[in-house]
Design a protein that fits this description.
This protein has 16 helices and 38 strands. It is globular and about 110 Å long.
Amino acid sequence: MPVEKHSIRDRATVGRFPTVTFGFEEDAEEEKEGSEENNAEKENACQRWLRKVCPCCYPTPNEEDVTDTLVTGIDDLDKENEANGGKPETGGDSELDELLLKVQSIDLMKDKSGETRTEHHTNLYQSDNFIIRRGQNFKMWISLSRPFNPNTDKLHLELKTGPVPTVSKKTHVIIPLVEELQDDRWEAAIVKQDDKRIMLSVNSSPTAVIGRYQLIVETDCANGQAVSTHDPANDIYILFNPWCEGDPVFMDSEDERQEYVLNDIGRIYYGTQYQIGERTWNYGQFDDGILTACLFILEKSGTPASGWSDPVNVVRVISAMTNSPDDRGVLEGNWSGDYSLGTSPTVWSGSVEILKEYHKNNGTPVKYGQCWAFAGVVTTVARCFGIPCRTVTNFSSAHDTDVSLTTDVYLDENLEPIDYLNTDSIWNFHVWNDCWMARPDLPAGNGGWQAVDATPQETSQGTFCCGPASLAAIRYGQVFLKHDTPFVFAEVNSDKIYWQKNIDGTFSKIYSEKKTMGHFISTKAVGSDERNDITHLYKHPEGSEAERIAVETACSYGSKAEAYSPPTAQDVSVEVTMKGKGPEMGGDAELTIVLRNSSSEQRTVILHSQVAVMYYTGVHKATVRKDNTDVDLLPNEEKILEWALVYKDYKDQLIDQAALMMTLSGRVRETQQVVATQFSFRLRTPDLVIKPIGKAVVGEKMAVEISFTNPLPQVLKAVIFHVEGLGLLTAQKINYGDIGSRASVSLTEHFVPTLPGPRKLLASLDCRQLTQVHGVTDITVEDKKSNGAL
């Protein structure tokens, strides 16, 4: 009967792939298929024939025996022996070698400076592994035991990743040999032949699973089949590809790709909306060992490798695995102020040390992190995998605990805060990430930047992770779109509602602030160290009709939809302002309270003020001062009240970010109008001054001088300096000792640069009395060769 022939392209099929969500488990079908594939390789016909011919020389092999090539398809030799009277033919291994087409070696041309890694934009990875991006062509040389004959010989490649490689899950890829390559699919073609060597040009799928693949080559000729042995040195690392239009992470701006994928250093912003601070962060996504550590994180998540083709799934896993509460992820969060069992979160200057420690200790969470450290690690891992990512800071960031999409402040009958009820908080600043990708799972228009937050605040589908949430959905209040859009919306655009306790124990809404959350949302600018304000991507202009519609739309899906009410007329307002950059650590804090009466009648305001030391997360630590006063306002008068907090009143209560918050509340005697506002500020810390000493040349010793002046009228105890710089020196901790009151000190650190080009050296200081002290300097390192030529 005629033999049915199938197109060779059918062999490239990798099967259907259902949507994979975080926490999905591999099914039993994969294990069955994987088991059958593994059993097929344990013993083949050639081995059975040799054992039959000479059982003493070729006993039954152990499962651990390894051969260079597995050979199949020699069953017909048994029949030939029978025709010769049962006598085996001589010749041994050499005769078999002549019969088969065997792979002698594979050359992936994986040099960092070679054509493939340069074209794939993976030449910056400090690794000799073969690292490529999906959806892009690559080449390899294969040396065979004899010249390849395209008329009689066949060949295909196989790639396997994950614990149970399966064709239907795209974790076992069969790459056929074709005459002419087509884009967007796994195929290979011979483009050059040199005697026994052939060069293959291989096209990869733009939706391939990312990760580490094992490579084998299977050959087939008239005399049988041969399968090359897996060599770990030829493993292929496949990443997302923002340069490929078929990849969901495609980004069409080269400047943005250079910034959000290839830049290994950045800025992270902190402080308050009135006092924005900045610090440099070493992402180090190309550092030796970081790609391995990042893949370790994916594997440790326990999620199926089949889901790693979708950036939505991958960033969700990254968000979950960067924190530790439910899956022993990378960083353990700590906001207590006691970091004696680990490293203070303010000490870290980059992600490399954190990720390497996590990998080295086989997945033991690193102590400790806070929001900027979580976000810095996410940027490193995402960029390492090829997902465009940036670190984002939101000032006056709400933490909504009851999905009301409002931030609620509860006051007692005397208009003083009821601390145990005020579970919603407003962080002075909060740092998360934006990741760039298409969102085919959402309505059109929701692709692009997606908010991803790894700080463990609330659970999402039972796991401490957040996002990806479309910035477009957040901007328009479409909180019904996944993932975790309501939480991010509340962070940047919730109304602040004040409730007062009634005599019967119930609460009444007495005031609302509509412009409190989400100010100066910041990220590093493309191509420079300037701050780029991206607030407009998260929300419409404050007070505009579009912004109010977005708030109303979002709140209609919240747990307190009835709390929203139209604005009411008010003729007295209160505002708190601050001069310049604000107070410095060790000095008095001075603020200005401005009361305005816009009516044509006199008003009297009964004003209550309270100042508290706060964690930067908005959690109350201690009240340091309370005041009550009556303020008379003439018609259309603006009255200015000067307010000061002296150092001795707050010095024993400060923690970490030196954050304080003033709460003002009051009632207008004539109209019963309520006025209220909260103002957060911080005490600025000094910078470390870093001065390079000597010429910076690769391989030659140089030094830097680090200077610091203690701003406090007290001794700093057990001071630790932390110094690091990509391509300059690995992270170092220097136990300096005590620094006297108002004293100036300096220290010199020697090191040998390892990489040429523009570099940044970072330093930070930490002790119990003073944190968030850091500095950075630019160092341009010359290549040793070019320096010698001069």
